[in-house]
Amino acid sequence: MTPSLVTLGALLDRLAEHQPDEVLLTTVMMSGEAEITTRSQLRHRSDRLAESLLLDHDVGPGDLVPIQLPTGNQFLTATVAILKAGGTPMPVSHRLPEVELSGLLALAAPKVVIAKGRPEAPSLDPDDFMATDPLGSPLPQRVSNPIKALASGGSTGRPKLIVTTGDALFDPDNPVIPQLMRFEPGDLKYSPGPLYHNGPFWFSINMLLRGGRVLLNERFNATQSLEIIESYQPTVLNLVPTMMQRMLREPGWMVANLESVRVVWHLAAPCPAWAKEGFIAKLGGGRILELWAATEANGLTIIDGNEWLEHRGSVGRGVGTEILILDEQRNPVPTGEVGEIFTRIAGAAPPCEYRGSAPLEDLNGGFTSVGDLGWLDEEGYLYLADRRTDLIISGGANIFPAEIEAVISQHPEVRDVAVVGLQDDDLGRRVHAVVEANGPATAELNVALLQLCREQLLPYKVPRSLEIVTALPRNEAGKIRRSLLREERGH
After folding, report:
1. I need a surface site. Which of 1, 67, 149, 208 has the fewest CB within 10 A?
2. Is the pLDDT of residue 475 over 70?
3. How many angstroms separate the CA atoms of 464 and 470, rounded?
4. Structural domain tally of the chain?
5. Same-domain pairing of 413 and 288
6. If we measure between CA atoms, which residue out of 482, 484, 465, 489 comes closest to residue 416?
């Protein structure tokens, strides 16, 4: 291990020695009550959980450890414990339907799952590791590799894991990512989103690396979030556009005191101009930053509100990132013309691999694409034309139509189905299912199909609306014309 590089666990333990009683993690519940964890408590609870992972389950480098917990302090405590044991944290929604969870566990092949109430599988419950007295002997230093694994439904509708490769080692004197995110020691970062999403999870980890603190909530509520900002005075916000829109619609938005906030990061979905303008008007353009990136970490762009006002609609210029816009034959397109976005960061292929899916297409020595479409202007600013041909981004969450279609198509009365995203003022896009039935359309079939979705999908993936048609439109090749379905329904 290079002397200047340390693990997250070692860094947090070092900080706990100097400020043992500082509140490090806070989760505000829907009731308004708050759960707090001090630096000392995190150190000892994560030590005890890591000890069990090491001794009782032989977890070490290369082992993925799913975390199936509600968003809260225990989720991050489990993350630190897994890294201390040398394992790889794998955030998973605690509401994940069993059929989807089984598919992900088959890919991960974990020795143990950190969850509550899963007696049918090897699991550890964080409630059993709440003691705050030190261990009898220090834990051995282990370096995790891979760093993290994120679950995805995948564009094929089958479970997929996006695994970030490399050693989980960091330079506390030159923390590249936290500095890029403008984090400062002592910052308090508020993420209203769930920790099984990459944004809140990775922002939280990097804030801890920077010596800052983390503020979470049980689940997002616009009214409560504004109250939380006023009460706890976070310096950094991590939002998705749907959250911004709901905050702006709150009656108390104009009088809400957000002066503590130094930086607002929004990401994960295109942001409507009116929402961006509302935040710029409230806080100033220099404090509003947009990040365009993928979980695969194959490139990123950043733009602040002042730049955006001069390049409206742009997601910024590459940061350490080269950008190519290519046509379907993988030839460069002229400036201003739409094509598929290929990026390369730090002159190399992205540090990621898939489980359950084919690897990313690699062009010209490390340029890859996750399917986003867009164009570049004369100054190198990137604009998105669409996030993917079929992908639906609803409330900042990626939803793959094939995953929903696979569920609906199970019903014996369904001949075919197409799921599309329709424009929605609140969510950006809402999930809409168009079903070609074997027989006549009935209210009973509509109810049955939605119930099937509720049984097998997370709530945000369940169609907000469903219609039954006699035939789906197809092109000459027999493929469903999804763009026509969107156009006929008002995009």
Report:
1. 1
2. no
3. 21
4. 2
5. no
6. 482
d(CA 166, CA 305): 33
The answer to whether 152 and 133 are in contact (CB under 8 A) is: no
Would you tell me how many other CB atoms lie within 10 Å of the CB of residue 22?
A: 13
Placement of tokens 């039954």 in the chain: 468
pLDDT digits (tens, 9 = 90+) for 375-410: 999 999 999 886 566 778 899 887 878 789 888 988
Residues 139 and 97 in one domain: yes
- The answer to whether the beta carbons of residues 435 and 466 sit under 8 Å apart is yes
Residue type, 57: H
Phi and psi dihedrals of 47, rounded to 5? Answer: -60, -45
In-domain check, residue 449: yes
User: Is residue 86 left, alpha or beta, with left meaning phi > 0 and alpha meaning psi from -120 to 50?
Assistant: left
Quick: pLDDT tens for 228-278: 999 999 999 999 988 998 899 899 999 999 999 999 999 987 888 889 999
- Is 328 found in the same domain as 464? no
Q: What is the CATH number of the domain that holds 472?
A: 3.30.300.30
Per-residue pLDDT, averaged over 212-223, amounts to: 97
Confidence of residue 100 (pLDDT cuts 50, 70, 90): confident
Query: Is 450 within the bounds of a domain?
Result: yes
Same domain, 401 and 379: no
Structure token digits, residue 44: 């000892």
Determine how many CB atoms are found less than 10 A away from the CB of residue 272.
Answer: 16
Instruction: Say if CB 424 and CB 395 are below 8 A apart.
Output: no
